[in-house]
Amino acid sequence: MTFGVFRPGASSWPVGVDGLVYGGDYNPEQWPEQVWAEDVELMRRARVNLVSVAIHSWALLEPRPGEFDLGWLDRLLDLLHGAGVAVNLATPTVVPPAWLYRAHPEIRPVTRDGVVLDRGSRATFCPSSPAYREAAARITRTLAARYSGHPALALWHVHNEYGAPLGACYCPESAGAFRRWLRTRYGSPDALNAAWGTTFWGQRYGDWDEVEPPRATATAGNPAQELDFLRFCSDELLACYRAERDVLREHSHLPVTTNFMTTNCRSIDYWRWGAEVDVVANDHYLTAEAERPHVDLAMSADLTRAVADGQPWMLMEHSTSAVNWQPRNLAKRPGEMRRNSLAHVARGADAVMFFQWRASRFGAEKFHSAMLPHAGTGSRIWREVVDLGADLVALREVRGSLVRANVAVVWDWESWWALELPWRPSVDLAYRERVEAFYEQLWDAHLTVDFVPPEGDLSDYRLVVVPSLYLTTAAAAKVLADYVAGGGTLVVSYFSGIVDGNDAVHPGGHPGALRDVLGLTVEEFLPLRRDERVALTGGLVGDVWAEDVRPAGAEPVLRYADGPAAGGPAVTRNRFGAGSAWYVSTRLRGEALAHVLREVCADAGVDPVDLPRDVEVVHRHGVDADYAFVVNHTASAAEVALRGVDLLTGTAWPAGVTVPAGGAAVLRLE
Amino acid sequence: MTFGVFRPGASSWPVGVDGLVYGGDYNPEQWPEQVWAEDVELMRRARVNLVSVAIHSWALLEPRPGEFDLGWLDRLLDLLHGAGVAVNLATPTVVPPAWLYRAHPEIRPVTRDGVVLDRGSRATFCPSSPAYREAAARITRTLAARYSGHPALALWHVHNEYGAPLGACYCPESAGAFRRWLRTRYGSPDALNAAWGTTFWGQRYGDWDEVEPPRATATAGNPAQELDFLRFCSDELLACYRAERDVLREHSHLPVTTNFMTTNCRSIDYWRWGAEVDVVANDHYLTAEAERPHVDLAMSADLTRAVADGQPWMLMEHSTSAVNWQPRNLAKRPGEMRRNSLAHVARGADAVMFFQWRASRFGAEKFHSAMLPHAGTGSRIWREVVDLGADLVALREVRGSLVRANVAVVWDWESWWALELPWRPSVDLAYRERVEAFYEQLWDAHLTVDFVPPEGDLSDYRLVVVPSLYLTTAAAAKVLADYVAGGGTLVVSYFSGIVDGNDAVHPGGHPGALRDVLGLTVEEFLPLRRDERVALTGGLVGDVWAEDVRPAGAEPVLRYADGPAAGGPAVTRNRFGAGSAWYVSTRLRGEALAHVLREVCADAGVDPVDLPRDVEVVHRHGVDADYAFVVNHTASAAEVALRGVDLLTGTAWPAGVTVPAGGAAVLRLE
Amino acid sequence: MTFGVFRPGASSWPVGVDGLVYGGDYNPEQWPEQVWAEDVELMRRARVNLVSVAIHSWALLEPRPGEFDLGWLDRLLDLLHGAGVAVNLATPTVVPPAWLYRAHPEIRPVTRDGVVLDRGSRATFCPSSPAYREAAARITRTLAARYSGHPALALWHVHNEYGAPLGACYCPESAGAFRRWLRTRYGSPDALNAAWGTTFWGQRYGDWDEVEPPRATATAGNPAQELDFLRFCSDELLACYRAERDVLREHSHLPVTTNFMTTNCRSIDYWRWGAEVDVVANDHYLTAEAERPHVDLAMSADLTRAVADGQPWMLMEHSTSAVNWQPRNLAKRPGEMRRNSLAHVARGADAVMFFQWRASRFGAEKFHSAMLPHAGTGSRIWREVVDLGADLVALREVRGSLVRANVAVVWDWESWWALELPWRPSVDLAYRERVEAFYEQLWDAHLTVDFVPPEGDLSDYRLVVVPSLYLTTAAAAKVLADYVAGGGTLVVSYFSGIVDGNDAVHPGGHPGALRDVLGLTVEEFLPLRRDERVALTGGLVGDVWAEDVRPAGAEPVLRYADGPAAGGPAVTRNRFGAGSAWYVSTRLRGEALAHVLREVCADAGVDPVDLPRDVEVVHRHGVDADYAFVVNHTASAAEVALRGVDLLTGTAWPAGVTVPAGGAAVLRLE
């Protein structure tokens, strides 16, 4: 990842939208046209400058195969343009029309168990279906031809949330596509046999035609097959995206994107998608019942920035208040939506958009909040929406500034997939749990972090954190070893470096890929019982996991005081070249993990930041100025020793800023 | 609902049975014919006067397609008639013969996920199957022709427990029937599109052929489609019933019924079924592990009486002791069966029948209790069965008397269905939970209540209780508003009045249909976390739900003391016309709900009744006398200030009656 | 069961293997051939004398239909023979090659719900498929013809773990086979109707073609059909085994076996399989999170010995440390594998084998432990494997000695199946829970027990324990009654003797089959609520279950002090002929059950054994000497008053042996 170079340009940002973007999904087809006029008037009042339209409009735009009814969309775009609201026009391919299902029932996706999913909700189609792809290309071409020159148009929004809720299809057409994908990857059945380890359980393939997706079977399937199928599914959706994007590019020079869900869609390997969009867009929703949803928000924003290769990105969807699809859809409390929005901007978002402009009266999401709620313009939510519009105007100068970090966390969808396949040593092993545990401690230490892919460039970082990188290729292992040898500080959690890209154990003893850099061998995994805890020296307590660690150069920093590894090393540090590599062999959480991380940070020369708990401070660096976003998630006013002018209020703070309870400030720093 | 007019007549009650009905399901085909003689002798001893036969006998009566073997049934009816036991003859259509499945595999029902259910248990057929319906009509016609003149015959029992355990079928034939039903309801695809809100998520239909049942799909489906499918399923079973009934009526003037499960079969809208039977019959089974199963029993009986439009009804099935299909089938303790039976009679049942006469030796229900248990006539259960027969003879004069109430509870299967569709604001919202919570407090206050349908006549009531009437049509809202305007007292719980009959949100802010009568707007729903509690003023505590209530005329009675709505109104009262409308915006239970209801009752002029806890007193009103049923569910004798003669014992109680622990009295009141 | 007669012979033990067998599954196909040389060298070091090969090698041995590639197996057998390692050669029919699925998709098994299971794991085939059986016979014939004369060969290993994980298939071919099986069993549809009680719920069959497996249906199916289907499934797998065995016997005089999982495969009735193998082999894996897994191990070993009719048996698979398929795969701690191995030998195993020789690098079981783990020969596990090899050499003289017991526990797969069918009086009833509860108390009393089948010979036992023998045939009841009449002592737990072999209730009151011998009737079952407890006299506490017990000769030993049966008998004793029969009508555990068993033992004249808790002592009796295995599962050294020479160390213990913490001794007794 490289910093400091902002790459503006017509092709990477909504064209014609000044400053920060503000708006949301707009579904006027749900309302009589007379309501549209009220909508644009209210958008003007709220300072909305971009809306996403037509996301679910395929059946209206193409009511019969090949017959198009675009008049309403013409009128809508003219109306919006007249009001100064730019348009993010979707290819409406996430919900095929009913007639396509009737003509081509084979577009219905099939589950692992063979259940055929029917239309009736959304995103229910087989990505490998030729009939689906052909019809999707046709509607995309029609919209591109008609609207590429429309002055309202600022951005193309391909499809919607690829991979959610459905990431895989096991139908015969998908099976054929999987075989083609494998043939490209491996060349011969023998190479496939070697990669998948088919001598285990007698699974050898003699011919490509014998290969199928990993359907329901009697017991655990072949993990390499499962892993390749997950890769294939992500790639197959990417192929759908590319096909539509390429159609758009034939007609239009406007930027093209699709909305990601970086931390909430496990079925997409976004590292492979980031470079395919002109601007990265992300959807994020709070987990309403989470204790500290703002930490998850920050992680999502940081990961999105990484997928965007450090460039500014768009928050394409979040919510003004409650969503409707969680078990208990808690409403946001006053000020929370503003804090959420500004926290995204702090971490690199130059756009704040919502699902949705106006609350639906009907359908599955009628209880989802909106900029204009059921309660109308007399409501608190509407007032906060209007105020936020003004805030974003006040922040327009931060547009294009960048975030920098000297701590990196390695994130890897492939490790996530592989680690959580069936028949691992313990069901309590969980990829994301470890990432979140480390991330939360870094957040609490007020350290801004970047996420990086496993083979990414680490040269800018003082400290690299590797939580449960179960799948570690030789190339990734070399990157980490070179980083440490060159003077870097590394901290690795248990169950990292175990298998290669085919889920085959690295030979020679665990953790095969990282034995050298860590200076140790793990002789045996020692999973703990449910709710079992182990004591460490220094008063720390771990759970879930322990290991029989045999140092080969590493020095024990902490030892197990009891449990199955009693007396053995629990946390180690290995000098390796000019740097050092730490290893944490049990599950530490909260203060125990913070304790270890403080030592690691000290070792890395990463200085502590002195701020009150739950006061979030992130810096953005522009060409002419630097900015500090201060978001106060607490119920008390916070004093922060930063000096500058608060862009939100115009107030100068020459001797440190006071941020009210639940409030925020954005300082142009002195 | 109108009272005081008893509608006797050959066509609305088992013909030729005097006094109260006593008996049960009788399955003689499970035993050698020599056992039948013992059966009728024991029936005589127990004073049994009606038995239900042939419910599961189709395969015996029609062993091959179109070939009938009725000899054993002839002999059985003659035997019963000779012993003075009348017959409730079933059309045995709940279990088609094996040969019908083999000839017509398409009669097998299909689940939402596409699983084809095979025969092997019971009630496993597609209600829309022409082959099923044709075969059902044939066996019905055969029985009607043969037995309509048999002197033993008193009543026709169509099928068995329609809708339980299977309420829906998703097969292609059901899909065709669903389309026909929709075409009748809506006339055009455009009307369907409008009703179902298909502009949401791009679900527009261009042609009827594109419509399918709401099969498994990627995520939440269209709620209006789901709701209409539930209506269709109830109507389709009703069409099955009507078809058989109409065949019977061609041959017989005897009354026709089918056994409902008013509180235990969620898939039937009994409001639409009540008028289709000549006499309402109901099956009720205790939830064995419930803390107070007798309260649920009372609710079932009251709801059955409502479905019977206030007329006497038949308890067609209950159990002498344990059932076999619950997780833990606790046995009834001594006296409990008698209390259960008399409590049903108290609330309008003029028949007490059991599943089953004699315990089966084999099959899925061999551990279900019976009038004649596995332990035989030496058992406690048999002795209690004989005693109950004598009790019912002693009560014969209550036959035809009616129950009156001045408190009504609105009950609505459509609200139940709609409220519990996916993606509501909180998974803790539950329709029946709220009805039961209010009902239990009214039961504990010793108030006899009627259930009424949402658009029912409220003119006889001082107080109307509306628990979670999520789906409220404009017509229902008008009934409630007129009732209050005319001087009535209304109490409404949260999440009422939200959507119309298509599950579309009423415009203008929640609760759209009831804003005026309640004098308030709910600006935002505030679902609570799992196990979160909110304090109210007055020391009350709520959970599950809170709301941002904005009064528009209503006066706050209680406020939130903490939680997301702290300071706002929690319980309100609105003067509206000559009456008042109360609103409860959080989930109150137990004493907290009782507290609010006491205030509401005082407002309504409903006087408190002074009786010991768990002593149940219900009055029936006859042409010549009034009766008080006193059922003592406690472990101590109870003194009740009612005077009269106990019909069960003949004892006169001129100064108040003493009812022994666990006992009962039925007073002909002075 | 008869004792004292050891039946040696070429046909009942691996040929050419002296002393105790030591080894494991060997999968050389997973490694380059150059690794094989290292393998045999290490086997030699570990004293391995038998390895199981080719279990999953079908696809390698027959890469295309009818084309065989046996060269690698030739080389392997020669190599092993050269190193003195004998071969247990598998028919590799547990995993058919991919080409067979492609040519015959109908070999894929189908679940009760109709889900077609695809290949991809293991053991995924329909046992009734002609295509599968034909292909299985062909590869078996090929291997038999080629290797029956190979000098390395010692034993044939047919298939692998029949019935696990898949015990049933519901496809059309299985349905046809089920009909043939039923036709053989019943002769006519009328006999089937009588046996299955099809008059219940109108399930009569008019023709064989109407009968299907018990597929998914609307509610509980016919229990007799379910029970017969379970019998059929076990028999159908047995037919697969027999077919392969008979092919082998055409070519070879070597013994044939298949590996059972006596306590872990509920779908096989091993009583019907034991006589079909030349030597009984068993696989056993600890439940890692169990509190006392060594007690379950002992139960498995005792049951395996019973299936072997008291003869020595082979432990075909266990693990050196963790497995990979449990939720949390705890590693064995130092010494535990040795204790496990010796405990199996103590209870009759003359072979100690492991899954697996060398840990896999890939596939679903790469985290399963092995004799040679990922950590290699530098590891603790490898050192313990080598030491165990030496131990077994030291124990060679115990080969062929036998175990004797004077307490028997009746075990019955049919009762297990029937008791746990749907719709029993309580979901808390569980067959194996009761067996384990009684077994654990007997283990803690240091009593060695035999398991016996329900109609087995009881003449050698002083005490017979019958836990929850729900299904009790008249013949089994007669065996028990004769045993007691002849002077035996019997203890029976609740829910025994209830139904006959068709799951039909024995007439005349529960427990129909055992009323006479127990001297009582159970008038009514009284299942308890979840977590409800009942007090008994004497301070004991029961849960789950109570009964209304009516003595008819039996004397109450303990009574219910509260609960639904308060005052009634809880534990009874009936003098019957020359013996006595005890009955326990509630669920007792731990010390409460131990208390009752102590009284029962005293009544039976079974003397208490004085040993420290968790010190396991079992005797084997040889022709020339008797041996005592002492396994110390505690963390302290144990003193045991047995005298002799410890074969493991050569140490003589003339005045009692001291066994170190976690250690073991095997004494040749003086």
Automatic annotation (TrEMBL), chains A, B, C:
The keyword Transit peptide does not apply. Signal peptide: none annotated. The keyword Zinc applies. Residues 405-606 form the Beta-galactosidase trimerisation domain. Substrate binds at residues 122, 160, 325. Residues 25-392 form the Glycoside hydrolase family 42 N-terminal domain. It catalyses: Hydrolysis of terminal non-reducing beta-D-galactose residues in beta-D-galactosides. CDD domains: A4_beta-galactosidase_middle_domain. One of its GO terms (biological process) is galactose metabolic process. Belongs to the glycosyl hydrolase 42 family. This is Beta-galactosidase. The lineage of its organism: Bacteria, Bacillati, Actinomycetota, Actinomycetes, Pseudonocardiales.
